[in-house]
Amino acid sequence: MTRITLTVNGRKHVVEAEPRRLLADVLREDCGLTGVHIGCAHGACGCCTVHVDGSPRLSCLTFAVQMDGRAIRTVEDLGGTEATHPLQQAFRRNHALQCGYCTPGFLMALLPFVEAQVSAGQMPDDDEIREAMSGNICRCTGYQGIVEAVRETIGDALAAKTEAAQ
Amino acid sequence: MRPKEFVYHRARDLDHALALLAEHGEEARPISGGQSLVPMMNLRLARPDHLVDVNDLGLDEIREEAGALHVGAMVRHERYLTDPLIRRHLPALLEAVHWIGHPTIRRNGTLGGSLCHADPTAELPAMAVLHGARIVLASTAGRREVAACDFFKGAYMTDVQPGEMLVSVIFPCPQGAHSGAFEELGERLGDFAMGSFGVVLEHEGGVIRRAATVCGGAKMTPIRLPEIEAALQGQTLAGLDAAALGDRVTGLIAPAGDFQVSAEYRRALIGELAGRALQRARDIALNAQP
Amino acid sequence: MKAETPRQIGARVLRLEDPRLLSGRARYIDDIRPANCLHLKFVRAQVAHARLLDVDTSMLADLEPAVTVFTGKDIGKLSMKSHQDYPEMQYAEQPLLAQGRVRFVGEPIAAVLAEDAYLAEDAAEMVFADFDFLDPVTTMEQALDPAVQPLFDHWKNNTWVERQMKGGDLQAARAAAAHVIRRTYTNQRHTGVPMEGRGVVAEYDPGQRFLTVWSSTQMPHLVRTYIAEELGLPESRIRVIAPDVGGGFGVKGQVFGEEVLVAWCAIQTGRPVKWIEDRRENLMASIHARDHRHTLEAYVSAEGRLLGLKADITVDIGAYSTYPFSAAGESGMAAKVMPGPYDFQAYEATFRSLATNKCPNGTYRGVARPSAVFSQERLMDDIAREIGMDPIAFRLKNIIRTFPYRNVLGFSYDPGSYVESLEKTRELLAPDFARASATAGDPNRRIGVGIACFIEQTAHGTPDFTRRRVPIETGYIAARLEVMTDGHVLIDLGLQNHGQGLETTMAQVASDALGITPDRIYVRHGDTSAPYSVGTWGSRGGPLGGGAVHLAATEIAGKMRAIAAHLLQAPVGSVQLGDNKAFVSDQPDRFVDLAYVARSALRNVDRLPEGMAPGLAAEASVDGPKDGSYSNAVHAAVVDIDLRTGKLKLLRYVVVEDCGTILNPLVVDGQVRGGVVQGIGSALWEHFVYDAEGQPLTTSFADYLMPQAPEIPMIEVHHFETPTSLTPLGAKGLGEGGAIGPPAAIANAVTHALDIGVTGTPLTASVLWHLAKTAREGG
After folding, report:
1. Is the same domain home to B145 and B168?
2. Pairwise CB contact (< 8 Å): C700 & A42
3. CA C641/CA C724 separation, integer angstroms
4. pLDDT for C5
5. How far apart are CA C201 and CA B156, in angstroms?
6. Please, what sign has the CA dihedral across residues C665, C666, C669, C671?
7. Residues facing B149 on adjacent strands
8. Are A148 and A123 in contact (CB under 8 A)?
9. Which of A13, A45, A74 is the C-terminal boundary of a domain?
10. Burial, C130: exposed, middle or buried (Cβ in 10 Å; 0-12, 13-18, 19+)?
């Protein structure tokens, strides 16, 4: 057993875990963050994507022990129980989810992409949006609503920036 | 699909890592990004007793020295996309990086991890072979350099010995005016390649001075095609018949088929990709001519 | 009628279930974690066919902490039994843990229970089975070979069942034909692969003698009944709950041996037991689907009229018969639906299901229809090519135009928009046909356009299952509605929502009848606490579940109007419901809140009219119509093929569909698009490959290739709306249709592009390159 200190969604967690325990399992079982979903456990579906120090990472390919001292963010932290984050709201408006199992992974994989595009002041084309989500598999939606949600979120943010600038 | 037990060591620095690897020998594996190793561990196909975490070692420099780029083992794939040295010296590698996995994999996977995993059709092993890179392996006994073409021993097999760790890769820079291109095809974006082809042309005054090629998918390791390189050398860029050379490539390779692609298709595909890569490298070179 | 309340049915209502799914607050099966739980890991066969001589668990004896292990020797006669009551059918059971023989790679041999999932996996590695190897049966040819030993000792051959269906005079059709066109078409083995695998948690309370089972299933009541019968427990003392389910697609529309076994283990050990399927198990041992071969022979007049069709249908069902649709279901369904939307009156089908040493074949979105429509629609194009007609004109010449139509097997089709959909598609595709023509003969790149025109029998009812003697036996859906004292509504729904938006659409349906806004309506589902129902599968949620909610809500609405009329001192006929109020027509100021009405019905019953019983609840059920209700659609694909690499790009995908009354266009379009993309996977990539030893080669997502975003185009969806008179709301089923058309539409587009008749799927780059080469060489 190893003692690991993680900052998860802004809160410090001290966890005793075997070195082999996957970050996904520790987040789900020790931190109670069951929005982290395991879809394949071999790094091929993106369901378990979380942020480590702000950067997307597959929590099924990460041992919790490696994350000692790091800051982890999961979907639970984005927009609270009511899912108020603009990307979450755009997912809802555009029917970008059905069963919801892959959804946290998509949100966590796409959020840094959306933020980077907004800060660069550019609207990506559909191919770029689709490539940004190419590591995530959704079996329900056919991806269209997700593409539309990303486009809408970036569009709204760019419009707000323009307005603020004027 | 969870790994078997192991002992975890977090190496403080390179000496510490090498001491741990020396101590545990065949039972130990270094782990950096984990993008190739951990899937194998979760499937219990890889069963190391000791993991040596090398994430604190640095080893993430890309620097130019004596006509070569020294790339640290811990450089993550995403870095190449914005690195000015890579853009200037290794344009074929820059193209190849777009084909590596998916964004999250590119963000976390490392050069050392990819080369040591030695997937037969992976992009970075192909780039190491294309550029005649030297792989730097360190152990408590010292360092040695292995030519990329000798480093890859077979599918998922390398020359890394127990106690050794890949610390950097030395990519000799193409000399003078040069262009590069890389072509690949998988069923889906980010999939394992069914075939790939990379080329670097060094040229002067519209004539190819020296060429390097690499072929992925033709064998269990990436291979150079000396006959094609010889044919390119001394050719004028304007007169280069890329499609004909692509056809010649098909005559030089005899890839294996598998349950997803036939041998005949893979052979024709690699030839086609060769023609396209050569054509683009030629066009890039011509467009760059003063 | 309710002037100030916009109708909810038909409105694009955003989904009520989304916030919990988006925020990570949903609860899927692995999120159910009872205290003191044991974790179960299956030891599964690593060989395809062998006598099982012994299972050695001795290495587990001294482990610390201790583990529990069960093998076939411990479980008595517990098994899965699924028998379609056909006289020809050969019967076989699957023991919950193998006994004496293993018949596919992945068959459970032992169950190891440990304190956590890691330890269970460690322990499972220490169980060793001793085998006496048998020759595996891995192809249809081997299964049909009389010299090959049957998989089951008491069988006469490896055919589960072979039967015929016929109607009309095929001899006469053949005699009158100017053209006889015969083709063989195949569809590969693949399946639904939900992003969440299966999983079961069971807990037994010995004091109450009560078993609670959580399972990621589409059919909780059927799981309950099977467990009760198999374990000999009173069904009243079992509750089955499907929590949030991360995709089903029919894969979770069977009762699985694992569900029964986990429940049994919980009773045996006296502790909660949890099994979460891993992805490797999921790909090799959950449920596979399709794996069809059809030989069709069409008889066509000189004028291009289809006179008759002969079909020979073979399906590789694998090692066991799955419950409740059985080994006969898939091939029988293909034979039943093969006549499709075309007007002809002579048909004869022979269908057979074969046993092989592969994972059992069960239901996946579309159930046999993607394969049947592939063959039917490839055949229509092949006929048109052979007799020199335009494929759409040929279809228009043969399409059914008058309704109700009685088909060659006696099934009655309710009205649809068959002709309109074809004509609309032709109009939409005009620019694409022009693009395709421009590339005809191009040595490097071709564009092709293909369509698939089909109907889908939806909302199958009890008569359909009685006729086919399927173990499912019935097809109804029930709902119970209860208005609470505060005017909020609880719906206990016999469906299970795993992405279909039922928590929203069913609230919309109830809202229109009750005049209560959807935000006050809570839909509880996936729980045997709801009235008995068969669950969510077979495109029945909207037409049958929606119908049941509508009927129950209408009954309650009647009572609320009567109470309100009494409270408002107005005639009942003048009272309307809307916006959470009851009001007098044309006098919107004369109203009473429905919360007040509800409280009057339940608490302040002194306010009720003389003699009226308290309470504000109702239950209703709706069964499928005798022959179901038929949705129709035309799918069109436009493909761009690089002849030199075999790379296919989908330039455009168009759906023109008619599912009757649309409850929520957001949900309908989502269902169609999601289905289409699964169908694209069927057409291009997804394939479970076995080698000659019966070893599965595709047990990870590196080998089993599902559609990812970059390869998928936007999917255009156009609607016709022909409400059916056969269901309460006019809705027909639509959940499966999206997945039915793509293999045929894409194969027809490839046929058009390459000018060579495609005979099978998947159309990988390698396959397409070979097709292009054959076409070029005039093969």
Report:
1. yes
2. yes
3. 41
4. 53
5. 39
6. negative
7. none
8. no
9. A74
10. exposed
- Range of B135's domain? 62-172
pLDDT bracket for residue C1 (50, 70, 90)? very low
Number of A/B CB contacts below 8 angstroms equals: 83
> What average pLDDT score do residues C487-504 get?
96
- Mean pLDDT for the stretch of residues B16-22: 98
CA-to-CA distance for C122 and B122, rounded, in angstroms? 32
Provide, as residue numbers in chain B, all residues whose Cβ is less than 8 Å from the Cβ of A44.
39
Q: How confident is the model at residue B136 (pLDDT cuts 50, 70, 90)?
A: very high
Residue of C22, C671, C736 to mutate, testing the A interface (most A Cβ within 10 Å of its Cβ): C22
CATH 3.30.365.10 domain residues, chain C: 18-26+476-622, 289-462+625-776
**B199 within a domain of the structure (yes/no):** yes
Q: C32-134+198-245+252-285: which CATH topology? A: Aldehyde Oxidoreductase; domain 3 (3.90.1170)
Spatial contact of C747 and C639, defined as CB atoms under 8 Å apart: no
| Class of C18-26+476-622 in CATH | alpha beta
ipTM: 0.98
Number of domains composing chain B = 3
Instruction: Answer for the pair B136, B143: CB distance below 8 angstroms, yes or no.
Output: yes
pLDDT tens for residues B177-232?
999 999 999 999 999 999 999 999 999 999 999 999 999 999 999 999 999 999 99
- C319-375 pLDDT, tens digit per residue, is 999 999 999 999 999 999 999 999 999 999 999 999 999 999 999 999 999 999 999
SS3 label, residue A104? helix
Residue C306 sits at φ, ψ, to 5 deg, of: -75, 120
**Model confidence over A4-19: pLDDT tens digits?**
999 999 999 999 999 9
Q: Specify the amino acid at residue C69.
A: V
Strands (E), C603-713: 617-622, 629-642, 648-658
Chains adjacent to C (≥3 CB pairs closer than 8 angstroms): A, B
Query: What domain range is A87 assigned to?
Result: 79-165
Residues of chain A with C-beta less than 8 angstroms from the C-beta of B9: none
Residues of A in contact with B47 (CB under 8 A): none
CA distance C730 to C435: 39
CB of C48 closer than 8 Å to CB of C104 = yes
Closest CA–CA distance from residue B253 to any residue of chain A (Å): 31
Which tens digits make up the pLDDT trace of C644-654?
Answer: 999 999 999 99
For residues C261 and B178, what is the distance between their CA atoms, to the nearest angstrom?
Answer: 66
Find the CB nearest B2 among C117, C702, C705: C117
Residue-level pLDDT at C468: 85
Closest to C730 (Cα-Cα) out of C522, C512, C515, C561: C512
Joined together, the tokens standing for residue C719 give: 């609607």
Does B45 score more than 70 pLDDT?
Answer: yes
Q: Domain total for chain A?
A: 2
Residue A17: closest CA among chain C residues belongs to which residue? C118
First and final C-alpha spacing in chain B? 58
CA dist C527 and C345 (Å) reads 45
B276 with B182, same domain: the answer is: yes
B39 upstream amide cis, omega within 30 of 0 = no
CATH number of C289-462+625-776, picked from 3.30.365.10, 3.40.710.10, 3.30.1490.20, 3.30.1360.70: 3.30.365.10
Using pLDDT thresholds of 50, 70 and 90, give the confidence band for residue C469. confident
User: For position C392, what pLDDT does the model report?
Assistant: 98
Query: Is A87 in the same domain as A158?
Result: yes
CB C81 within 8 A of CB C95: no
Distance from C-alpha of B103 to C-alpha of B78, rounded to nearest angstrom: 8
In this structure, which amino acid lies at residue C159? T
